[in-house]
Amino acid sequence: MGYEYRLKIPEEYRAQAAEEVKRRLPGLLERLDPDPVGNIDVRSIPEGLFICDHLSNPAIAALVFRQAIDLLLRVSPTVCVEDA
Prior knowledge:
Helix content: 40-55%
Order of helices and strands: EHHEEHE
Structural class: alpha+beta
Shape: globular
Distance between the termini: 13 Å
Strand order of the largest sheet: 2-3-1-4
Number of strands: 4
C-alpha cells in the first residue's frame, strides 16, 4: 500500500523529457539514504514520470517528489500531477 502519482507533461515536450529523464533519473535517488529510498519507486512513463511512495519517511518522499517535478520542469513549462 502507498501513494501513487503520475507526473504528466504536454505531448510536445515528451521526447525531450524522455531523454532528460533517461540521463538524470539514475542520479535522482543516489544522494539520499538508501534505506528510506527503497520505499519509493520512480519510473519513466510515456506521459512523464510515475512515483509510488510505499509509506516512506515523509521528508524523503517530499524531496523525491520535488526533484521529480523539477526534472520535468527543465523541459516542460507545465507538469500535471494526477493520482494514479
